[in-house]
Design brief:
Shape: globular
Helix content: 55-70%
Order of helices and strands: HHHEHHHEHHHHHHH
Number of helices: 13
Length: 280
């Protein structure tokens, strides 16, 4: 708890309210604590109580199909694994792991606890600037002093970027095991891939791995818990908030021989750059 203690001490000295923005906390708070039989959330609340602080939890939630499609592209461009989208979704539905998205399981304890004030915001592009919505949920409604973002943060590399990243990841894992385990090698490849994707405008043809079969599987897995969660926090059904997607599968392979030659050449170049970094 030492980093938290430093943060709270600094906040008290400056008479400010500490704010932590960290997606991984959604996975950690409900996990068992190593120090006793309670959860990390329970231990954290005890820690805050002793120092006179209260906890306000604000979470942006996405519909699972949208969330998993987006998360897959981010993991693939980081060469995190070599699985197809269908395999990735099946694995998440079986064992969740780092892509857990059963909101009833993730936030049920926080909702049940009267020591936590919870606010959950649907992440929808039509609902306005998410930063303004976050500050409004925190009671900070004046956003006039905020500087606008000058560029998109963490953009999707498009289906072409996903195709290249998958090809590189499989070659690294099969033929270059040391490079596969080398973070600097993967970071170099990702940075170069992102630069190419941005220059070529690949984000205008986004990756979309969702088809009707995958969508139905996700609805069977999360539909009931989504509805219970939505009724509890918003007083309506899940589909009243998140409309059912209309799957439009992106290309799963290059559409012509010329396009294939182009993408293969780029993947070989990026792979060679990464291997040079690994050797150094």
């Amino acid at each position: 708890m030492q980093p938290w203690q430093k943060l709270l001490d600094r906040a008290e000295r400056k008479k400010l309210r500490p704010l932590i923005s960290e997606e991984v906390l959604s996975l950690l708070l409900g996990q068992p604590s190593r120090s006793n039989n309670s959860s990390i959330l329970s231990c954290f609340l005890d820690f805050l109580d002793q120092r006179g602080f209260q906890l306000k939890l604000v979470g942006f939630l996405r519909d699972q199909p949208d969330y998993l499609n987006s998360r897959y592209t981010q993991l693939i461009k980081r060469l995190y694994f070599t699985r197809s989208f269908e395999s990735y979704v099946a694995q998440v539905m079986r064992s969740s792991g780092e892509s857990a998205c059963d909101f009833e399981e993730l936030f049920g304890e926080a909702l049940d606890c009267d020591r936590v004030h919870c606010t959950f915001i649907p992440f929808l592009s039509a609902e306005g600037d998410p930063c303004e919505r976050l500050l409004s949920a925190l009671g900070l409604v004046d956003c006039a002093g905020l500087m606008p973002l000058t560029q998109r943060i963490n953009p999707q590399p498009g289906w072409k970027g996903v195709w290249i990243a998958l090809r590189i990841a499989r070659k690294l894992r099969q033929n270059h095991p040391q490079a596969w385990r080398n973070a600097a090698c993967k970071a170099r490849i990702r940075q170069s891939l992102e630069a190419i994707a941005l220059k070529e405008g690949w984000q205008n043809e986004p990756f979309q791995g969702l088809d009707e079969q995958v969508l139905c599987s996700l609805e069977n897995r999360y539909g009931a818990s989504n509805d219970r969660f939505a009724q509890r926090v918003w007083g309506c059904s899940w589909r009243d908030v998140f409309h059912r997607p209309m799957p439009q599968l992106s290309p799963i392979r290059p559409r012509s021989q010329g396009e294939r030659h182009q993408l293969v050449a780029l993947s070989e170049r990026l792979l060679a750059e990464g291997l040079r970094v690994q050797r150094r």
